[in-house]
Amino acid sequence: MGKNLLIKIKVTPQKIIKLSFGNIMRFLKKGELKNWSFGEAYFSKIKFGKIKAWKLHSKMTLNLIVPVGKVKFVFYSQKSKRFRVIKIGEKKYSRLTIPPKIWFGFKGLNKPESVILNIANLKHSNKEIMRCKKNKIKFNW
DSSP label at 39? Predict the structure, then answer.
């Protein structure tokens, strides 16, 4: 894993259309993701102050957005021993595109919880996920 992998994480600001009866929050438009094939979409919830870390996908590309709350994502390059921290949520509404082979974890920053949507290019498979315990990669959350 090269240090360049952390640079390949894309942060794409998304549009929020403000309406008096409820906002419309865009996620993705046709053609935005080049050479893309849909695998699955799912929501994850993270409670305030809780941390889910660490995992690495060997093949899956993730597209993450936080429509409810705020989440701190931490990405780690094993080779360069460097971290990249990105916070997104309702007030910094952006899509993160994460290529495979990057360790990551995340922490909920909003009470009572935050919601993360992932649209991935592959269906979930435990065969392509590596996990390690939170204290295995030293980071001051």
Answer: -
pTM of the model: 0.91
Looking at residue 67, its pLDDT comes to 97
Give the start-to-end residue ranges of the domains of the chain: 4-136
Residue 132 tokens read as 């390690």
CB 115 within 8 A of CB 85: no
Distance CA 116, CA 75 (A): 16
CATH top-level class of 4-136: mainly beta
Q: 59-84: b or e for each residue (b if 16 or more CB lie within 10 Å)?
A: ebbbbbbbbbbbbbbbbbbeeeeebe
Residue 4 is predicted with a pLDDT of 67
Q: Give the burial class of 19: count Cβ atoms within 10 A of its Cβ; 0-12 exposed, 13-18 middle, 19 or more buried.
A: exposed
* pLDDT at position 49 over 80: yes
Tokens found for residue 22:
């409820």
